[in-house]
Write a structure and sequence with these properties.
By secondary structure, this protein is mainly α. It has one domain. The chain is built from eight helices and no strands. It is globular, with a radius of gyration of 18 Å. The structure holds iron/sulfur cluster (SF4). Iron/sulfur cluster binds next to helix 6.
């Protein structure tokens, strides 16, 4: 799998086939609830591993982690590695697969059958997002505003960044608690 992604998206599409990749994308949306649970478990592990990453150096971990993320998410979501993953707010339907890369809802051109105006053979990623979101437990909702893509993050691991941020938040909360108990 890694080899496929090391080869690049074009080669992967050639090997797996564009139709199969599209079918897998739709499967992922239909199983958004399950994938959400899997992701939450992975995230917990990554947050726990934060002290190890800290010791090794995040910059060293970045490359292998991005490669793993690209391999897994490339197959499941046709991920473009934007570096700011929105899947948990978009029903596991990657907004970067919208031909207009719209990250805050559909354009006005969705066809009557729910397909894309630019690629009529493809379901609108936002129509899929609504379906997937209905299957998820996450408090993140579809109306959450997504910031414009920061292209300096392209190719980087969203998993690692989120885990790093969450670990830092936990550490800050723990040190606040320690300060409060010292004062008491
Ligand atoms: S939102 Fe970005 S990181 Fe998430 S699957 Fe899509 S391209 Fe990949």
């Amino acid at each position: 799998m890694h080899l496929l992604y090391v080869c690049g998206k074009k080669a992967t599409t050639k090997l797996i086939g564009a139709k199969t990749m599209y079918k897998v994308r739709l499967w992922s949306v239909r199983h958004a609830g399950l994938l959400e649970k899997v992701y939450n478990a992975v995230e917990k592990c990554l947050v726990r591993l934060a002290p190890v990453f800290e010791r090794v150096g995040y910059e060293r971990v970045e490359k292998p982690m991005a490669l793993i993320e690209k391999s897994v998410k490339g197959v499941l979501f046709d991920c473009q590695m934007c570096g700011q993953c929105a899947l948990s707010s978009t029903g596991m339907s990657c907004p970067m697969n919208c031909p207009k890369t719209l990250r805050n809802g559909p354009c006005g051109g969705v066809r009557e059958n729910g397909n894309c105006e630019v690629k009529p053979e493809m379901a609108c990623v936002w129509v899929e997002a609504v379906k997937g979101h209905a299957l998820m437990q996450s408090a993140n909702n579809l109306n959450e505003v997504q910031f414009p893509v920061d292209y300096t993050l392209k190719g980087s691991s969203s998993w690692l960044r989120v885990a790093r941020e969450k670990a830092a938040e936990t550490a800050a909360a723990n040190s606040d608690d320690a300060l409060t108990s010292d004062k008491v």
